[in-house]
Amino acid sequence: MMTRDDQWGDSDEIMLDGNACTYPHERRLCCPPSETTPSCGWYSFKGGACKGECPDGYTEVGSIDHGCRSGYQAACCTTENKNNKLLNAMRLYETCAWSNAPDCNSGKCTFANSPWPTEFVESTTGSGAVYCYSGMVHDDDYNFSFSSQSRKYCCDTSNKAMTWGTCTWRNDDFNFGTEGKTCSSNCHDNEIRVAMDGNEECHGKDGGAKSYCCTGTYETTSKVLNPVLAGYEADLSAWADSPTCDAKTGLDLYARSDISPRDQGQTVLKDQHYQGTLFILATMIRGTGLAGEAMSSSVKALCKIWDKYIPDHWEHLTCDKVTSWFNDKEGNPAAQQRSPEQNGQLALCNMDGFNAMLNTRARRLPECEHYEIVEADYLANDGSSINDGTLAKRWLNQGDVLDRLEKRAPAEAKSVLCNDGKVKRKINYQSQPYPSVGDWADDAEPVQNTVDLVDWNVCRSSAVRTYNQGSDRDNYATEHMLELESIPMFIKWAAMNQDVCKEIDCLFFAGFFNKKVLDSPPDMPGLDASHQQVPMQRVMESLRSETNAGNFAILWGSINLNKAQLWLHGQPRADDTWDGYVEGDLNKATEVLRDTIAVYQYLREKKIWPKFQAINKAVREEMLRAEEQHNKDDKDKKSDLQACWDAWMGHQLKSFVDNGDDWVKKAIEDLKKNYKPEKSKKDDPEGHERYDALTAILNLLETEAAEAIKLSNFDLGLGDGDAMDTSA
Q1: Cβ–Cβ < 8 Å for 299, 283
Q2: What tens digit of pLDDT does each residue of 312-321 get?
């Protein structure tokens, strides 16, 4: 993963390219970890008058036009090392160059003495975001159509041992985007994007582009290959005898590794033996995961080297077992969401755990399944378990577990006690009814996009996906994107934070916000006439109801419960309940941990988070409506209600993420501590084997948590400069 080396980039800023990506996704520029990497940067922004020209010694590998009033910025990388030798990572790029732009038709490859005489590919947007002249053209019958000029990628193809390999235009790899409407610009894992075209068949669709994807490998002769393999073999042998873990993988693996560096003072990232071993493992994973393709001779050679050294230290980590496990699309779907390099990093930092996990005798500890909620799982308002009290009775009186989970009732009278330190006021309001999971039609959007775990029969992954659930909805729940208790939470917080919510105190909420004060507001379906002018009720209706049923979701029950309790209480279980699971039921404890991480996986799912954003937008509109009315009626006490809501939402989202992150880390440590064998490995080998397998599972979950439980995943989409822009 390359960082910017140009003079305008921030320290450690990653080279990112968002061309034709659905928000908020971006691509990262990556180079082979086993090779000396080039220096790369964006050239040049020039205050928006962008000029995509690479400095001497650099070549163009991509382009963006973000922020450019004209032109484009080129992603440029050096082609030689400090000793003026061609970098292996840049060999193929060095054989090619892009022709002229924006008058792209004037660019030629086949001029006299051209160093790159072959027109390899052409594109209306070049390497990504290049502008070529375009406009309406007509044929002899004056049939008009849109047309763009195309920029040529000129190459020297005379060396048959060094080519771009197999190439194809792709526009239908739908990891992101909407099939049929948006062209998808993804390449497959084993391919390099050489060019991109956002016009032609993608023109007139809802965005997107097609990409020219190549396998991008160069061949070497056996005289070169043998010394290279010998070097990798030396790295692998040395690493196996004294293994190290990369401290800066981007996955934060070192902190939870069962491998230690040889020397705490060394820079682990630059450890040659580790990098060589990672290259071998990543190449093995990639080379054995290509559907319908036989293993190449080079991958076979690397597997032979791996099996010569690794099983002597970790008997179950043969090439076949490791690569089969990482490439098992059905049995290990989470691994498919990571690159071979990331999977390799994960394995090299947890070799003991993976060795135990791939041992068939230990891999089924713990044994997970779909978690079904019991009474002890619910939290009371003070964060304790509900063994006693009115909340417990409420759940019990509602019948089966599904009904308790649904929290469904007709319009219900509720209240919140507001205390701003000066006065206390009880504020009564009405909670609107909403559809139970059984009320939805089979073809309703929430049913067709029901969210659940990818594989609930494994403990090691919290990954989620959408299913068309049809009528089989037992133990699923209708999910409010923004919990109903959010409004009472906001009222209590605003009343106690007058520095950011000036004039928004208990008297404001009781005497204005919960009264019929709005002058001729637009009609809101779902509210009777007596509530149309009441800001509090309009906000509650904005959270959605039976009448306003848009932006609901259907979610597996335990994930739904965990989300609600994390949002309200900062933890998915009461401490005593969790401690009981840790000490008495490893399966249940691991399922709770997995389903807690799944809360954040669910919220950042591409079909889910936009719903949260839409609900928040609707609430903000009602807050602004109330603010404008209040400031019109009382010019002496100006309020900024929408900004107050934004401040609370920022505070709440950060707490939701921080509390979840803290709870997951503590839960993992609780399990490791409780199940660590008391006897030595010599006296209890099976106990240590099971513990290593459990540790590997917990480390996999922690890796997923590190990616999922981040505030940057939950940008509210309000734009740069807004207090609620969390994308930085």
Answers
A1: yes
A2: 999 999 999 9
| Residue 375 three-state SS | helix
Give the max Cα distance, the chain: 90
Task: Report the distance separating Cα 48 and Cα 71, nearest Å.
Answer: 8
Evaluated on CA atoms 545, 550, 555, 558, the torsion sign reads: negative
Q: Are residues 505 and 578 in the same domain?
A: yes
Q: Which domain holds residue 697?
A: 375-713
Q: Which two tokens stand for residue 504?
A: 């928004």
Count the Cβ atoms, other than its own, within 10 Å of residue 583. 12
The residues, ordered by sequence, that sit 6+ positions from 302 with a Cβ below 8 Å of its Cβ are 229, 232, 280, 283, 284, 287, 319
Instruction: Name the pTM for this structure.
Output: 0.61
3-state secondary structure at position 439: coil
Phi/psi of residue 651, each to 5°? -60, -45
SS3 567: helix
How many residues does this entry show for the chain? Answer: 728
252: number of Cβ within 10 Å: 14
Residue 5 lies in a domain: no
Q: What is the mean pLDDT of residues 607-623?
A: 94
Average pLDDT score over the chain: 81
Which of 357, 390, 415 delimits the end of a domain?
A: 357
Number of domains in the chain: 3
Q: What is the residue type of 64?
A: I
Q: Do residues 664 and 596 lie in contact, with contact meaning Cβ atoms separated by under 8 Å?
A: yes
Same domain flag for 200 and 233: no
For range 686-707, the mean pLDDT? 86
**427 contact partners, CB below 8 Å, separation of at least 6:** 415, 416, 417, 418, 491, 506, 509, 510, 514, 536
Task: Compute the distance between CA of residue 353 and CA of residue 698 in angstroms, rounded to an integer.
Answer: 10
Say whether pLDDT at 99 is over 60.
yes
Tens-digit pLDDT profile for residues 162-213: 788 888 888 875 544 334 445 567 788 778 899 998 765 564 445 578 889 9
As given in the structure block, the two tokens for residue 498 are 């007058």
Rounded Cα gap, residues 114 and 723, in angstroms: 54
Clarify whether residues 164 and 293 are in a common domain. Answer: no
CA-nearest of 596, 512, 591, 608 to 560 is 596
> How many CB atoms are closer than 10 A to CB 374?
10
| CA distances, 501 to each of 143, 149, 204, 507, 513 (Å) | 61, 55, 46, 13, 14
Q: Are residues 492 and 445 in the same domain?
A: yes
Those residues whose C-beta lies under 8 Å from the C-beta of residue 59, and which sit 6 or more positions away, are 76, 77, 79, 90, 93, 94, 97
pLDDT digit string, tens, across residues 218-233: 654 433 345 567 778 8
Identify which of 69, 178, 193, 176 has the alpha carbon closest to the alpha carbon of residue 128. Answer: 193
Closest CA to 233 of 225, 223, 244: 225
Query: In which element (H, E) is residue 642 found?
Result: helix 641-675
Under a CB-based contact definition with an 8 Å cutoff, are residues 631 and 679 in contact?
no
In-domain check, residue 370: no
Residue with tokens 């050679």: 301
